[in-house]
Amino acid sequence: MSRATERDAALREHALRLLDAAGAGPAPIVRAGHPALRGVAVPFDGQLEGEELDGLLALMHRTMRAAPGVGLAAPQIGLPLAIAVLEDPGVTSEHVAAVRERAPLPYRVLVNPAYAPEGDDRAAFYEGCLSVPAYQAVVARWRAVRLTGADETGTPLDEVVTGWSARIVQHETDHLGGTLYLDRAELRSLAAADEIGMRWASEPRPDGAAEALGFALGAD
Questions:
Q1: Which of 205, 204, 207, 208 is nearest to 95 (CA)?
Q2: Is 34 known as a binding-site position?
């Protein structure tokens, strides 16, 4: 048996154990310091059968919603496989939605995704992570990216994603390469999710935080 075959068999066994342990509930989310968050995820290449993949995606979707979050990558439940799920209901404030370009993002699956900047514009906003709970920090990300990869049916993806949806795509795809949002963050902006931190994070743009905490927004 080749190393790749052994690796794929181990991934399948790991996924099935996660499904069995979770039952109808969510999976535990691993936190910063777990090795799965710092490795490069293995490309999905049929390691799971159709019903097994459906079960994994359903588990990831439940876990993301229960957290709650707007995206979840397989390494965040300890499975180093290049799959992520995304879903964002958006925000109620029309002003905040307009400033952040945060339109609702219907549930979707990314398999073996990659992104590249589309243009030179970046936008800087507060961002958090289910694997780094209780904190948030400002990250300047590409305003638009070209997303490639496939969906859960194997249909190829090649599209331009903009605004907050592009931020989610970048955050979750970064997870598959072993990168946490803190690796890209303006660390002077780091704030606990307490009264002050939530006030900074609730600003349409983090202008007040930048002035109070002494950092540049870092957006073009």
A1: 204
A2: no
Active site residue 87: no
175 is in an annotated binding site: yes
Helix (H, G, I), strand (E, B) or coil at 173: helix
Q: Could you tell me what percent of the chain has a pLDDT over 90?
A: 96
Q: What is the pLDDT of residues 48-91, one digit of tens each?
A: 999 999 999 999 999 999 999 999 999 999 999 999 999 999 99
pTM value surpassing 0.90: yes
C-alpha 5, offset from chain centre: 28
DSSP readout, 59-120?
HHHHHHHHTT-SEEEGGGGT--BSEEEEEE---S-HHHHHHHT---EEEEEEEEEEEEESSS
Strands 83-88 and 71-73: antiparallel
pLDDT at 118 over 80: yes
Residues 197-203: what's their mean pLDDT? 95
Structure-token pair, residue 209 = 């935080």
CB atoms within 10 A of CB 45: 11
Architecture of domain 3-213: Alpha-Beta Complex (3.90)
18/126 Cα distance (integer angstroms): 31
| Cα–Cα distance list, 209 to 79, 190, 197 (Å) | 36, 10, 9
Considering 87, 127, 172, 186, which one is annotated as catalytic? 172
Q: Is 171 labelled as part of a ligand binding site?
A: yes
Q: Of the candidates 152, 217, 66, which has an alpha carbon nearest to the alpha carbon of residue 76?
A: 66
Dihedral sign (CA 68, 113, 145, 33): positive
